Amino acid sequence: MKKYNIKADKRLGQHFLIDSRPLLSMIEAAQLSPEDEVLEIGPGLGVLTLELGTRAKRVVAVEKDRQLIPVLDDLTRDFKNICILEEDVLKLDLEKMSESLFGGRFKVIANLPYYITNPIIMKIIENRNMVTLAVLMVQKEVAQRLTACPGKKDYGILSIAVKLYADVNMICTIGRESFLPPPKVESAVVRLTLRQEPRVQLKDESFFFKVVEAAFGERRKTIKNSLKSRLALAGTDLDIIDKALEAAGIDALRRGETLSIEEYARLAEELQRHMS
Ligand code: SAM
């Protein structure tokens, strides 16, 4: 940072890794082979980028902060397999990028800017036809949500959305002192192994998520009451909810946070069946 006269911009979530242990845990979790192509989000000062460059066939590193681009170009100048792109990852068309820079499916490896963790994770999930695996440094509490099981306090819409399309592993937790400047929160590394097919077959994914959102909208209520007050069943009989719960084999007095993905899928299907 001194050499290039860089000041960390906290608005861009700039907390640079200064500890090699989490770095090596991320590399190991990514199970890299010399044939792998890797997208790195937010290379910052290039610590992870350089490690990836020595192990992967090709690395595309997407950095939003213009002041870091000449630094990254300088640090990676000896690596013909590293390409630095100045871009906002949320605006990046992954399909186009992959077509022009990669030969096939790729891995995503990143110490994420925490202020956009959820949209980045959702983007990875939406592009699961191109991404095989993602190793991500996130806030510890996000990692807990991603790995939470039904009935646990961290279990929620994010857990369901991600587990539907990925197998999630907690790799390690990392203290604040591993970064400069230290963030306010603790961090963790998670690995998402993307599935081509969802964990459960859904007839209508958008209705499935409407049901999940309605159920988690009022966590303290029973599943029956949350659905009655939150699910917009315009012009339909509220008895449908009781009938669908019964047909799906779900006790109406349970809370939404105790239902598994499979139970939500059954419930959504029964609701739609009773509505039609
Ligand atoms: N990879 C570096 C490391 O581990 O030390 C830096 C990680 S830092 C937590 C997050 C990085 O993401 C920063 O370099 C920041 O400038 C970059 N960033 C923030 N918003 C971004 C966006 N929308 N698109 C791409 N990069 C972004």
UniProtKB/TrEMBL annotation:
It catalyses: adenosine(1518)/adenosine(1519) in 16S rRNA + 4 S-adenosyl-L-methionine = N(6)-dimethyladenosine(1518)/N(6)-dimethyladenosine(1519) in 16S rRNA + 4 S-adenosyl-L-homocysteine + 4 H(+). InterPro entries: KsgA/Erm (IPR001737), rRNA_Ade_diMease-like_C (IPR023165), rRNA_Ade_Mease_Trfase_CS (IPR020596), rRNA_Ade_methylase_Trfase_N (IPR020598), rRNA_adenine_dimethylase (IPR011530), SAM-dependent_MTases_sf (IPR029063). Specifically dimethylates two adjacent adenosines (A1518 and A1519) in the loop of a conserved hairpin near the 3'-end of 16S rRNA in the 30S particle. May play a critical role in biogenesis of 30S subunits. S-adenosyl-L-methionine binds at H15, L17, G42, E63, D88, N111. Transmembrane segments: none annotated. The keyword Methyltransferase applies. Residues 22-196 form the Ribosomal RNA adenine methylase transferase N-terminal domain. Belongs to the class I-like SAM-binding methyltransferase superfamily. rRNA adenine N(6)-methyltransferase family. RsmA subfamily. Its main location: cytoplasm. GO terms for cellular component: cytosol. This is Ribosomal RNA small subunit methyltransferase A. It is found in: Cytoplasm. Pfam families: RrnaAD. NCBIfam families: ksgA. Its EC number is 2.1.1.182. Keywords: Cytoplasm, Methyltransferase, RNA-binding, rRNA processing, S-adenosyl-L-methionine, Transferase. The keyword Cytoplasm applies. One of its GO terms (molecular function) is 16S rRNA (adenine(1518)-N(6)/adenine(1519)-N(6))-dimethyltransferase activity.
